[in-house]
Amino acid sequence: MLRLLWNLSNRVRLFLRTYMPTNILLDALRTRRGLKWGVPAMLIAAPYLLGAWLLTVWISDGGPGWLNLLVLLFIWNALKFLVNGPITLVLLVRARTAERRARRSAGRSMANRAPSAEAAGLSTTNA
């Protein structure tokens, strides 16, 4: 029974990560190329929060109760983008630090190389 629940939860997670637009966007933001867009993407939370507010107004004015599910969905998506911004900022700093470290070590290894025979003026051919 536990194995069945585990497999079901894995399949649901895979479906949500593959086909839901916010999850696709968040996955793209977590790539090295997308890390710089993490903090500006926090602004996407504003329309979600506005939509949640508008739906709550509609519900309080006599709208259908099932709209509460959409309110929860909008708030959840807004929180995902708000939390993702600082996370991508930290990941960007770590990636840039690692890249800088790699450039420095590559530069040092080039500077510490022994000079080759041709650079020292020792040619193998007799002219």
The secondary structure category is mainly alpha
Number of helices: 4
- Measured between the Cα atoms of the first and last residue, the distance is 84 Å
Number-wise, the strands total: 0
Radius of gyration: 27 Å
Low-confidence stretches: none
- Residues in helices, as a percent range: 55-70%
The ordered string of helix (H) and strand (E) elements is HHHH
Sheet bearing the most strands, described?
none
General shape: elongated
Strand content: under 5%
Q: What would the average pLDDT be, to the nearest integer?
A: 89
Structural write-up:
It is a single chain. The radius of gyration is 27 Å and the shape is elongated. The protein contains four helices and no strands. Helix 1 (2-19) packs across helix 2 and helix 3 (45-60) packs antiparallel against helix 4. It has 127 residues and is mostly helical. The chain has helices at residues 2-19, 21-29, 45-60, 67-111. Helices cover 69% and strands 0% of the residues.
Features:
mainly alpha, elongated, single chain
Describe the structure concisely.
The protein is built from four helices and no strands. It has helices at 2-19, 21-29, 45-60, 67-111.
What is the strand and helix layout of this fold?
Elements: H1 2-19, H2 21-29, H3 45-60, H4 67-111
Helix pairs in contact: 1-2, 3-4
